[in-house]
Write a structure and sequence with these properties.
With 1924 residues, the chain is mainly beta. It is built from seven helices and 145 strands. Strands 101, 102, 103, 105, 106 and 107 form a six-stranded antiparallel sheet that branches. Strand 105 and strand 106 form a beta hairpin. The longest helix is centred in the last third of the chain and has 26 residues. The chain is flat and about 165 Å long.
Length: 1924
């Protein structure tokens, strides 16, 4: 039946016409007809361009997690696709530590530990992605299933059997991790079965075989007593392919009948088999006679009995059921065993591995735009879930189960690409892909332009891009007309280019825009398949206008939109008019803005319309537009007959019922013009057209379309012509003969109309009477062929992937389409079976020497079939009596031929490879059989150690025989007499741990040994034949191990405040595991402790710590420096060279009574009259109790200050309260003052921690009377009054009283508010107006605050006058201010007449401002700003006045006295200092800031604390806590007052107590095995003679390198041990260790070797000299610590060079020094014939005594710096020297090798001034390489000059070039940092002068700064001395 589809198009008028179409939008549908969707989808033969996979990874990647995996992916396409890998959600996988992606498409999964995600970041499913310009293809999802390579073990279970019955053995597994897939079954497969040591030959399953393998179960029928014995199995992991041999299990065989209820043995309940293989299900019992077995198949909950025919058969009467594995066989099977005593049931599950495949067709489709495409997909598993993807993205709503189709209707460009059908079931997945390529297609716009507004005169470019096939042409229209109608060609250009994606890009460029160029621009892309367009307005600023257009034609019945062709911008209104009436916005005819809509257009709409546009300024443009309505053609329906056959005739009449003329007819077939080959006649007569078919044929079938067009539109009508044609052969089937297993294909195809249906039949039987038409045929289905899709393959072809016997027979192909008789063709299929063996894998046969050996093979194939045996390529000599061959079976269809080769009395020479050859007419095959002749093994030889540990050894010996079992017999060498030797079976390592063991050697590990014990061991080999003699003995000693038990009887008790005595006994010797080196004591505080006030710093060893004690016999230690009255937990561990053992249970103890542990709480206060009332709560009890007894409370209070120099409390006092008190009253306090209050609880040992500080404010006091009042006449009615405010009170306001003098009563008052500067300046003034001229008035003032009103003050009098002279009203005073502050001097005046008042200040400071009010403002007060300032005022009347102020600079306090050390501990120091005498400071001291830092520390590391000044004038003290142990610290003070902060005091240099860690011998420090070195750092920390605890090690720097040299590698450490692993066995290494303490670094270097692989020690560790660049082994003082890797200073080579240089220059220096000692200038000499010697230690160097000939030996201070002048000559008397300017050479001396006793240095001058001949002070260089390094350092006096202390002093008026050496000078310290001393001296030289001096290196650690300085009577400078 036909149907109608109208396609209306716009008909344009001729080019020459003057009227044009404006723009009409027609809604139409291009429809090709219903036949297009129903036509058959055909596959294109063009090559595929989109990606498709040639090699795809498996859907399940099962692998060993410890080995990793590699997935391969490859794809093709044009261009070649890019291969990447993604996760399941599409994220791209990149190479990282978990995986590596290769450029060839491979993905490598790195080995991962058990339990870790194999893909990294939780990735378990990945995909391979292939992409190019034509699409994207994804592989099927790959599920990563890692299997942990566990230490699994194969286990054999044997059930008891009876003679004559069935025996069953299972090979199970223990400790195996599964993939977690429930459909996978066992991850284990059985490779071999053993009976004793003989390999059991298990043939393929047949009903007659004696041995049957059913999964992991072995069944033996007809059991005899010979079958008893041990059985084993060799199991193989399916994923890792690693094999394990199970320990044998014994099969017991009993005689006689067994009467019991049948009970099938608990064998594996799941059997897994590959498709096509034979799978056997076991159901055996141990009964004899055996029970009756019945088998059932479970389907949909129902049980179907199994007859056991065809592909299903039973074994041993039903003890097992064997089936041919296929998908239909998978599922549940049930076995029931019956006997007279009862029955039992066993349920088993069969899993069949059927590859999941998927078929997708067509694979390449080239479709036209708008057409319909169908993809058909089917999976080999009907239950698989199907889904679709397009370019890798899921297609929503598409999919199914088993089969699925994807239909794409109205194909567009977005639909092209790769389509994939994906099948999933469980973790199995598959995919197939197809490509959809777009053929001819209508244009689609890819890029368009937008509406815009531009200014006239500019240029614009409009861009439009379209894609189609064939490529479209793009035209540009303006208001629906070609652009050339409105614009000259030179004013625009159109360019086109092809984009990267094949799209056409057109650009329209308009130049020199004008207002008339505005309008609606259209980009129209069109080709033969259709058109697409886009329109948008281009607005150009200008007046409105409308273009002239011709008549606009519209089609009747169609919707039309006409746009007004206006230009100009902006436009406020656009209207359409008809017959003078404006058209509204609703209805069938409506107008909105520029669009006139006809929905639909009717003939009545034909008329003249008008369009008008209005600009915002009122300009209007109007133009008429004629609209003509045309009638489209209408076609009368026509149809073809449905019963047309080939050869008949037919006609089709296409008539038009209505429409404007003229009419134009055309015919199309299948959308294309009629081809001439059809021989169809066409006749057109006015209003109809006739199509005549004289003789129909198959080629005439199709869809015929009549197309009629007029000037309005065109119309189409289509009808389908179907010519029925009888079928005929296109591919006629023929007979086929194929080999068994080869592909089989029977093709059968026919043509006709309708398309013939191809059906295949198979002959299944003959008719009873032999007639052909009565033969029995059945339709062939895919399941019968083993291929679900085979029966309905492409074009009806019947195929099988592998031909089988069941495929042989007679077949019939039938082609039928219902037209005429069907086509039939019979063919015969013959399957020939070539010779082949049932088992293709090589078979192993074992025989005992001297016994018979039987080798056999079984082959199948078409007869005649022959079997022959060969050995070493030759046929066996059957004439020998030792060989015989027997055969059974005849071969041929369905029967196997078996051949047995028997060998009598096998010998070792008979072992080897044998081949069984099978041959027939269709092929040949061979099978390998390996014969192994077994004999007792030989004694193991070459027994040696392959590794040794603390509790295990690794044995290595030469393999002498295969299949032997080995055992070790060992005895401890120190065992008691009569102790029995121990025997242990050895497990041979299948995968050697290292590659150095030869391939012919065996290795095994023996464990359970004792550490550090000696043993004797032998190895014995055995097999089922017998045992070998023992091997030669092996003597060895195991390695040490950390102690296995803790010290015993640990006791802790308090012996003194802050001290605990710890005692213990050594652990039992059995747990030492080597030589016990000592103990580690660890302690930690469990409660609070007496921290310092600010809680600063770390608590160090007082809170927690550990100490190592050397020697196993030492059993006690005193812990000092602990918190008082604190509870501690103490634990001990024993250690040896291998490390520390487990800790002993902690023991708890408390130190002796001390100060309170907790602070007072709840401090609060309230103000009273002249006092403060303070309350508090007692401190909380400590945990654990008891609390120390309180002696009372100390209530501290101090006023708060807020100034630039000091913020916080200062001064104040302490009030004592009884222990039971909870409050106190503080009296005699300042009024209106903020006080800081805190409380401390006190015991007999001292005060506890302070409470939280609270701030309390005292009450205001009533102001005092104002005594200073001044009244001055300002004018005839005005008096200005000024006064001074009362001190030390806050004023809220003043009351100024005024009264006429001598008048009773009549006074009045005024409230005067104080200004903001009252508190700073202390004065106020007010102007009283409205007074009577020349009347004398009295004035007085009262002050007020919150406390009340003060008394009236002094009375001042004044009378107003018009001619009052000018006077200064302000109060001149002395102002004392701090440097840098701002000072204001007010000069307020009164009087002076009505004119301007002039003020002049003298002098004027450097930075000042004179305000408009006449005040002098000094911005920053400086020293030169101090002095008198005078304000001179002059009035207009000529009068003047003067006032003078004094400004004094407040002097900051002097530097405090140097602090002194009272006590030092490991981490604490108690420092004290004295308050400055009261007469020295002009300002009261508010407090002190104490600073401390470690000597040599970098900037910013100093810590500080504030100490408020107390009420007493005595000394102060401060505990500095958290200091570094054994480190030197610098402490200094700064004093604070309201005048500022003092300069720092002379610093105190002091050191905390404690010694540093010491380097131990290498033998006690380094533990080694064959691959690692372990360093016991506890040995370094051992020590503490007399109970002294060494300083803790802050950090360790441990490095290792090969002894041959190379770079150092840092080793990780945990504070107790450091270990280097992965080292070469038997190799020497160097170890470098640095223990970084707080104050020093201990360095050492060792050479140590790992043990040989056999465990043999190749040498003991030795100590080496510390490498160049580091100090010698021992302690190196490094203030501030050191950093490993930094260049170690003070190397040996520079030291030797400096020593030699010092010796050469010593003589000259000594001569100069002695010359300066003399009272008169000495004559030129040498005084001695020998050079003078200088040494850092008198009389001793390198163990020898140095005695110069003259007996004078000068001592040089260690680490001192010398300046030695060059070219100086003494020419005058004492005090008068003539010199030329020379150069000084600077030398640094060495430190002493051994320290001297801590003693005060001898009394001697500490500073030497250079004579002028040593040069001036023009250079501060310290470099000894500089030719003029003068005057940078001083040097020490020779020893002979010590008794003339003033011999070298000089007047301070002379120019002295020296260096100040104070307590913060570190040039003499162990570090030798002279440069910092120079910098420090340089910064203070101008302020203090040269007053430093040198100290000895061995002086006490406590150092004090500069003492008293002054002058003697003769002007000499005092020499400063050290004081202890």
């Amino acid at each position: 039946m036909g149907f109608l589809s109208i396609n209306m198009t716009l008909m344009r008028r001729d080019v020459g016409a003057t009227l044009h179409l404006v723009y009409v939008v027609l809604l139409f549908t291009s429809y090709r007809g219903a036949a297009e969707e129903s036509e058959e989808q055909t596959e294109s033969s063009e090559p595929r361009l989109a990606p498709w996979f040639t090699s795809e990874p498996p859907s399940r990647a099962v692998f060993a997690s410890g080995a990793g995996a590699r997935l391969v992916c490859a794809a093709r396409g044009d261009p070649p696709p890019a291969i990447t890998w993604t996760t399941e959600d599409g994220q791209e996988l990149l190479s990282d530590q978990h995986r590596r992606v290769y450029s060839n498409g491979s993905l490598e999964i790195a080995p991962t530990p058990t339990g870790t995600s194999v893909g990294g970041n939780g990735v378990s499913v990945v995909r391979c992605r292939a992409s190019n310009a034509h699409g994207v293809a994804l592989s099927a999802p790959v599920t990563l299933l890692p299997v942990a390579d566990d230490s699994w073990e194969a286990v054999v279970t044997a059930w008891p059997a009876a003679v004559g019955g069935v025996a069953m053995l299972t090979c199970g597994v223990a400790g195996l991790s599964s993939t977690g897939d429930e459909d996978e079954g066992d991850e284990l497969e059985v490779a071999l079965w053993y009976h004793g040591e003989r390999v059991i030959d298990v043939p393929p399953p047949t009903p007659e075989t004696r041995y049957l393998s059913a999964g992991n179960t072995l069944l033996i029928r007809s059991v005899t007593e010979r079958d008893a014995g041990t059985y084993g199995c060799l199991a193989r992991h399916r994923a890792t392919r690693r094999s394990r041999r199970a320990r044998p299990a014994e099969l017991r065989v009993s005689r006689g009948a067994t009467g019991a209820v049948p009970a099938p043995a608990a064998a594996a309940r799941t059997i897994r088999a590959a498709a096509g293989a034979a799978a056997c299900l076991p159901c055996a019992t141990s009964l004899h006679p055996g029970p009756h077995y019945t088998w059932y198949r479970e389907r949909e909950g129902r049980l179907q009995p199994i007859a056991g025919e065809g592909d299903t058969w039973t074994w041993a009467g039903g003890a097992a059921l064997c089936v041919r594995a296929a998908r239909t066989a998978a599922g549940a099977w049930l076995c029931k065993a019956y006997s007279a005593l009862g029955d039992a049931t066993a349920r088993l599950r069969l899993l069949v591995d059927v590859p999941l495949t998927i078929t997708l067709h067509p694979q390449l489709v080239v479709a036209a735009s708008g057409s319909t495409v169908r993809f058909n997909c089917s999976a080999s598993d009907e239950e698989a879930a199907l889904s679709w993807r397009h370019d890798g993205a899921p297609v929503a709503g598409a999919g199914g189960t088993g089969t699925a189709s994807l239909v794409l209707r109205g194909v567009t460009r977005a639909a092209r690409g790769v389509y994939q059908c994906e099948a999933r079931r469980g973790t199995r997945a598959a995919q197939a892909s197809a490509e959809l390529r777009l053929g001819e297609s209508a244009p689609e716009l890819q890029y368009t332009f937008i509406e815009q507004a531009l200014r006239a005169g500019g240029d614009v470019a409009l861009r439009c891009a379209a894609a189609a096939a064939p490529p479209p042409r793009i035209a540009w229209l303006l208001d629906a007309q070609p652009l050339a109608h409105y614009r000259a060609p030179h004013r625009y250009t159109v360019t086109e280019e092809t984009g990267a994606g094949g799209e056409i890009v057109s650009v329209l460029r308009l130049r020199a825009l004008s207002a008339a160029d505005g309008g609606r621009y259209t980009c129209r892309a069109h080709n033969s398949r259709g058109a697409a367009e886009h329109s948008a307005r281009l607005n150009v600023y200008g007046p409105p206008s409308i273009r002239a257009v011709g008549p606009v034609r519209v089609v009747a019945g169609a919707n039309a939109t006409i746009y007004c062709p206006y230009a100009g911008y902006p436009i406020s209104e656009v209207w359409w008019w008809r017959d003078g009436e404006r058209i509204g916005g609703v209805g069938r005819v409506s107008a909105r803005s520029a669009a006139l809509r006809l929905r639909p257009a009717l003939p009545a709409d034909q008329a003249a319309y008008a369009c008008s546009v209005t600009a915002p300024d009122g300009q209007v443009a109007r133009r008429e537009i004629e609209i003509q309505v045309r009638n489209p053609p209408k076609i009368s329906p026509f149809i073809f007959s449905a019963e047309l056959t080939e050869g008949s005739s037919a006609q089709a009449l296409c008539g038009v019922s209505s429409g404007d003329k003229p009419l134009y007819f055309s015919w199309l077939k299948d959308g294309a013009p009629l081809p001439a080959a059809l021989q169809v006649q066409e006749k057109s007569l006015g209003e109809f057209s006739l199509l005549v078919f004289p003789a129909l044929a198959a080629r005439h079938s199709g869809v015929y379309t009549c197309r009629v067009a007029n000037h309005a539109a065109s119309a189409n009508y289509s009808a389908t012509l179907s010519v029925k044609v009888a079928p005929s052969w296109t591919t006629e089937p023929s007979d086929a003969a194929v080999l068994l297993g080869a592909p089989l294909l029977l093709e059968c195809a026919a043509r006709g109309h309708p398309t013939p249906v191809i059906t295949w039949f198979r002959k299944v039987g003959e008719s009873p009477n032999g007639l052909e038409n009565e033969e029995q045929w059945e339709e062939v289905s895919g399941g019968q062929w083993g291929d679900p899709g085979g029966a309905a393959a492409r074009g009806g072809a019947l195929s099988a992937a592998a031909a089988a016997r069941r495929h042989q027979g007679r077949y019939r192909c039938k082609a039928d389409n219902g037209v005429g008789a069907p086509l039939l063709k019979h063919v015969n299929v013959t399957v020939h079976e070539p010779a082949h063996f049932e088992a293709t894998e090589p078979r192993n046969v074992s025989a005992v020497r001297g016994r018979e050996a039987v080798l056999w093979c079984r082959a199948r194939g078409d007869a005649p079939l022959s079997l022959t045996w060969t050995r070493l390529g030759r046929r066996l000599d059957l004439d020998s009596f030792r060989w015989s061959i027997s055969e059974s079976g005849a071969g041929g269809a369905g029967e196997a031929l078996r051949s047995e080769l028997r060998l009598r009395a096998a010998e070792g020479a008979d072992a080897g490879e044998y081949r069984c050859l099978a041959a027939n007419h269709y092929g040949r095959a061979e099978m390998l059989v390996f014969l192994h002749v077994e004999e007792p093994p030989e004694a193991p030889a070459g027994l040696r150690l392959g590794g040794v540990g603390a509790r295990w050894i690794r044995l290595v010996w030469d393999a002498s025989s295969t299949g032997a079992r080995y055992s070790a017999i060992y005895t401890p060498l120190h065992a008691p007499p009569g102790s029995a030797a121990l025997t242990v079976n050895l497990t041979i390592e299948t995968a050697p741990l290292d590659a150095e063991i030869p391939s012919g050697a065996l290795s095994a590990t023996l464990s359970g040994l004792r550490p550090a014990a000696a043993y004797s061991l032998r190895v014995v080999a055995a097999n089922h034949v017998g045992a070998s003699p023992p091997s030669a003995p092996l003597l060895f000693t195991t390695l040490e191990e950390a102690p296995s038990s803790a010290p015993q009887d640990v006791r802790v008790r308090a012996v003194a405040p802050g001290e605990l005595l710890v005692s213990w006994t050594a652990p039992s010797r059995d747990s030492w595991n080597g030589e016990l080196l000592g103990y580690v004591v660890t302690w930690r505080a469990l409660s609070g402790a007496d921290d310092d006030e600010e809680g600063e710093g770390e608590e160090g060893a007082a809170r927690a710590g550990s100490a190592a004690i050397a020697g196993w016999a030492r059993t006690e230690l005193t812990l000092r420096g602990l918190h008082r009255y604190a509870r501690y937990a103490v634990s001990l561990r024993a250690y040896n060279r291998a490390g520390a053992g487990p800790p002993a249970p902690p023991v708890y103890a408390s130190t002796a009574n001390g100060v309170p542990l907790e602070a007072v709480g709840g401090v609060r206060c309230a103000a009273e009259a002249g006092a403060l009332r303070v309350w508090w709560s007692p401190p909380a009890p400590p945990a654990p109790p008891p609390a120390p007894a309180l002696a009372g409370y100390d209530v501290h209070y101090a006023p708060q200050y807020d100034s630039p120099a000091w913020t916080g409390p200062a001064g104040g006092g302490v009030a004592a309260a009884a222990s039971g008190a909870s409050g106190a009253t503080l009296r005699q306090l300042r009024p209106a003052t903020n006080y800081s209050v805190w409380v401390r609880a006190r015991t007999g040992s001292g005060p506890g921690p302070p409470s939280t500080t609270v701030t309390c404010t005292t009450l205001d006091d009533v102001p005092g009377a104002i005594r200073s009042v001044r009244a001055l006449t300002s004018s005839a009615s005005t008096i200005r009054v000024s006064w001074r405010a009362p001190p030390r009170t806050r004023i809220s306001h003043f009351t100024l009283y005024t009264k006429e003098r001598d008048k009773v009563g009549g006074e009045w008052s005024q409230r005067v508010e104080p200004d903001e500067d009252l508190e700073e300046e202390g004065e106020a003034w007010h102007e009283v107006r409205g007074l009577l001229e020349r009347v004398l008035y009295e004035f007085w003032v009262r002050a007020h605050n919150a406390a009340g009103s003060g008394e009236p003050g002094r009375v001042a009098t004044a009378a107003p006058a018009s001619n009052a002279p000018v006077r200064v009203l302000s109060w001149p005073r002395t102002i004392r201010a701090i440097r840098g502050t701002r000072v204001r001097l007010r000069c307020v005046v009164a009087g002076g007449g009505p004119g301007a008042i002039r003020r002049r200040w003298a002098p004027l400071p450097r930075r000042h401002t004179v305000t408009a009010a006449g005040d002098l403002l000094i911005h920053e007060l400086e020293a030169e700003s101090s002095g008198n300032y005078t304000c001179l005022v002059s009035g207009a009347d000529g009068s003047s006045d003067i006032a003078t102020w004094r400004v004094d600079l407040r002097t900051p306090p002097a530097a405090p006295l140097s602090p002194r050390l009272l006590r030092a501990d490991h981490h604490d120091m108690l420092v004290a200092w004295d308050a400055a005498p009261g007469h020295i400071e002009m300002e009261p001291i508010l407090g002190y800031t104490i600073w401390w830092t470690r000597e040599g520390a970098t900037g910013g590391t100093a810590r500080s604390a504030r100490v408020p000044a107390g009420a007493s004038v005595g000394g102060y003290s401060r505990a500095l806590r958290g200091l570094a142990c054994g480190a030197r610290h610098k402490v200094w003070l700064r004093a604070h007052s309201l005048a500022g902060v003092s300069i720092p005091s002379t610093p105190l240099l002091a050191a905390t107590t404690g010694r540093q860690a010491g380097a131990p011998p290498g033998a006690a420090f380094i533990w080694a095995n064959s691959t690692s070195l372990r360093l016991n750092l506890l040995v370094w920390r051992a020590g503490g003679a007399g109970g002294e605890l060494p300083c803790p090690v802050a950090r360790w720097s441990v490095a290792l390198r090969p002894a041959a040299g190379g770079g150092w590698s840092a080793l990780p450490e945990d504070g107790e041990t450091a270990e280097a692993g992965g080292l070469a066995p038997g190799a020497w290494y160097e170890v470098r260790v640095a223990a970084h303490g707080a104050a020093a670094v201990t360095r050492a270097r060792y050479r140590a070797a790992t043990r040989a692989r056999s465990g043999e020690r190749i040498g003991d560790p030795v100590e080496l000299a510390v490498e160049e660049g580091a100090s010698p082994a021992g302690v190196e003082g490094v203030p501030g610590g050191d950093t490993e890797g930094r260049t170690w200073r003070g190397g040996l080579a520079p030291a030797l060079a400096a020593g030699a240089l010092a010796a050469l220059l010593g003589a000259g220096a000594a001569a100069l020094l002695r010359a300066r000692r003399a009272s008169t200038p000495p004559p030129a000499r040498p005084a001695h014939p020998h050079p003078q010697l200088y040494t850092t230690e008198p009389g001793k160097r390198n163990g020898k005594t140095l005695t110069p000939p003259n007996g004078e030996l000068e001592e040089i201070s260690p680490y001192a710096t010398f300046s030695m002048g060059g070219g100086a000559t003494n020419t005058g008397t004492t005090g008068t020297t003539g010199a030329r300017s020379g150069c000084a050479l600077h030398l640094h001396t060495f430190g002493r090798a051994s320290p001297l006793a801590m003693a005060a240095p001898p009394s001697r001058p500490n500073l030497l001034h250079h004579a002028p001949e040593f040069g001036g002070c023009s250079s501060d260089s310290e470099s000894s390489g500089s030719p003029c390094a003068a005057c940078a350092e001083t040097y020490r006096l020779p020893a002979g000059a010590r008794h003339t202390p003033h011999a070298h002093t000089r007047s301070h008026s002379e120019s002295v070039c020296g260096v100040e050496s104070s307590a913060d000078d570190t040039s003499y310290s162990a570090s030798g940092r002279g440069e910092r001393a120079v910098r420090g001296a340089r910064g203070e030289r101008g302020e203090r002068g040269a007053r430093g001096r040198r100290r000895r290196d061995h002086a006490p650690a406590v150092r004090y700064g500069e003492g008293v300085r002054g002058r003697s009577g003769d002007g000499s400078a005092y020499a400063r001395r050290d004081a202890l």
